[in-house]
């Protein structure tokens, strides 16, 4: 048998192999740029030296309370410095960070606490009321620590709740060692965080991330966002959402500055952009609408171009034009909780700028190509697992494969097996593959409307509605119909001060779509959204069903 010299006496050892982890991003930034401002929160300015030391203090304090590998530490926090410290201090102990959606009700919070077997819970006082109610329901009895945000003043839109913990956050971490010798993961496959899906049907599923994926997302986010050295990032995206698309770990790669924003309000965003020189931010389309529709007195001039990463439906051309005029460059992303947030980017080619408007719009409507940290992206027939033809027309299911796909669902092997059937992660999103390798979503599998045997993409109808100048938000769902089986029903939220009629909306769509695709019914109302700005179609489907 021939001996392969490249596999002989060339073993892994501590000198040539270390597990990937995003925790080393912070350690490096603190070493190279110790005096650079890492975090801004109101009057607070925290350097990288202090950020790293406080994260180690938190880790040390947690370890002193017995927190170790395999334990879960939950946080119910806004976009504050404590949330950034938790993203580093919790995994420094080997434990798993569970960051909860701050708009959840008590029953779902209790379910998550029990399902994750939470040992310690850090709670911002804004949310102490609902968390107290959840703890009364839950079976677990974690150590509860109150976080009292110093920037949460009296003149705020929300009330500060009572203290429900046995300790205060600052007092707790003061017990820790700022020079704590934190743990590198024994294996980069070790779990780093737990994020629950929205749970629109039944209980939510717990999505588990590993250190390797989180580390790779740091590099990939820098590339996708076009970040140079020392970017200034505004926290408009909730850090509880897919761990803030992994940006709490990403910024340390390039020694960036986190500008915390407790509440997403137009005036506060413009103030931060103008005063701190914001270069990047992320958010759902609702954040764009908030910026564009702000009263003139709340807007502030700024000289820099701000990169705005957005996910969900592609922004209409009119919105992109308004954003560009306002000083923002929009980067369109796509992903899921199960893919660490964004895993696909509409990577723009300069020559596309020279296309006519219709072709340019078509290019911008596409979700794009895989992130640099994702190994494969495909559109396949979910039954045969064969790729669909790259013709831009044949619909299949969008599937992912690579190092930024979740480990699986916590304590749910059946759901994990179903999601990974055939060696690919099944997104549940339907789309097409274009000849140049760019994918474009057509719908969620459950959102396709079947009318008279024809498939209608709700996204296509929504895109048409968004082209009407009065439309701020739109969602289309199936309306049961005795003759056609289903027909499109449109829910439309108008821009402030604008008016339109149902007939006007239908005629507008008929100028852009085949008539059978156009909505038969139009309902004008505020469109329900999640805390991250995603439209809650399940609410609208129930509304349609109950109206029968």
Automatic annotation (TrEMBL):
Record-annotated AMP-dependent synthetase/ligase domain positions: 27-410
Gene Ontology process terms (BP): fatty acid metabolic process
Enzyme class: ligase
AMP-binding enzyme C-terminal domain span: 460-534
Pfam families listed in its UniProt record: AMP-binding (PF00501), AMP-binding_C (PF13193)
Molecular function GO labels: ligase activity; metal ion binding
Catalytic reaction(s) noted: 3-(methylsulfanyl)propanoate + ATP + CoA = 3-(methylsulfanyl)propanoyl-CoA + AMP + diphosphate
This enzyme's EC code(s): 6.2.1.44
Keywords in alphabetical order: Fatty acid metabolism, Ligase, Lipid metabolism, Metal-binding
Family membership noted in the UniProt record: Belongs to the ATP-dependent AMP-binding enzyme family.
Protein's name according to its UniProt entry: 3-methylmercaptopropionyl-CoA ligase
Naturally occurring in which organism (per UniProt): Hoeflea prorocentri
């Amino acid at each position: 048998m021939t001996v392969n010299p490249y596999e002989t006496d060339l073993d892994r050892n501590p000198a040539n192999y270390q597990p990937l982890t995003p925790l080393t991003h912070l350690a490096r930034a603190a070493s190279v740029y110790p005096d650079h401002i890492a975090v801004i929160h109101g009057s607070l300015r925290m350097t990288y030296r202090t950020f790293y030391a406080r994260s180690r203090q938190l880790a040390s304090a947690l370890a002193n309370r017995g927190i170790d590998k395999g334990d879960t530490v939950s946080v119910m926090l806004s976009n504050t410095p404590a949330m950034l410290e938790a993203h580093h201090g919790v995994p420094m102990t080997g434990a798993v960070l569970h960051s909860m959606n701050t708009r959840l009700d008590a029953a779902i919070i209790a379910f998550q606490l029990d399902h994750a077997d939470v040992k310690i819970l850090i709670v911002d006082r804004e949310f102490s009321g609902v968390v107290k109610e959840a703890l009364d329901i839950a079976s677990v009895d974690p150590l509860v620590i109150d976080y009292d945000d110093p920037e949460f003043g009296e003149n705020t839109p929300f009330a500060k709740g009572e203290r429900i913990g046995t300790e205060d956050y600052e007092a707790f971490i003061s017990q820790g060692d700022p020079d704590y010798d934190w743990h590198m993961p024994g294996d980069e496959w070790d779990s780093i965080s737990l994020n629950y899906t929205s749970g629109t049907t039944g209980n939510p599923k717990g999505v588990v991330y590993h250190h390797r994926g989180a580390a790779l997302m740091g590099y990939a986010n820098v590339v996708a966002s076009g970040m140079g050295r020392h970017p200034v990032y505004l926290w408009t995206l909730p850090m509880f959402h897919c761990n803030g698309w992994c940006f709490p770990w990403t910024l340390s790669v390039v020694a960036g500055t986190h500008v915390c924003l407790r509440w997403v309000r137009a005036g506060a965003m413009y103030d931060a952009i103008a005063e701190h020189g914001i270069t990047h931010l992320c958010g759902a389309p609702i954040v764009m609408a908030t910026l564009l529709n702000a009263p003139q007195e709340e807007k502030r001039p700024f000289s820099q171009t701000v990169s705005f990463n957005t996910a969900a439906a592609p922004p209409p051309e009119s919105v992109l034009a308004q954003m560009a005029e306002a000083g923002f460059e929009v980067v369109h992303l796509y992903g899921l909780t199960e893919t660490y947030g964004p895993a696909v980017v509409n990577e723009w080619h300069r020559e596309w700028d020279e296309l006519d408007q219709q072709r340019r719009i078509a290019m911008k409507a596409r979700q794009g190509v895989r992130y640099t940290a994702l190994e494969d992206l495909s559109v396949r027939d979910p039954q045969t697992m064969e790729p669909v033809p790259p013709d831009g027309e044949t619909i299949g299911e969008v599937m992912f494969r690579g190092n930024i796909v979740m480990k699986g669902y916590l304590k749910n092997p059946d759901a994990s097996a179903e999601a990974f059937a055939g060696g690919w992660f099944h997104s549940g999103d339907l789309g097409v593959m274009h000849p140049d390798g760019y994918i474009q979503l057509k719908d969620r599998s459950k959102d396709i409307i079947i009318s008279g045997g024809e498939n209608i993409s709700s996204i296509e109808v929504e895109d048409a509605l968004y082209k009407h100048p009065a439309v701020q938000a739109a969602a289309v769902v199936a309306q049961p119909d005795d003759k056609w089986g289903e027909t499109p029903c449109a829910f439309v939220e108008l821009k402030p001060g604008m008016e339109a009629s149902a007939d006007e909306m239908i005629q507008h769509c008929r100028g852009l779509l085949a008539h059978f695709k156009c909505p038969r019914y139009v309902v004008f109302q505020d469109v329900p959204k999640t805390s991250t700005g995603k439209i809650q179609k399940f609410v609208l489907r129930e509304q349609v069903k109950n109206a029968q």
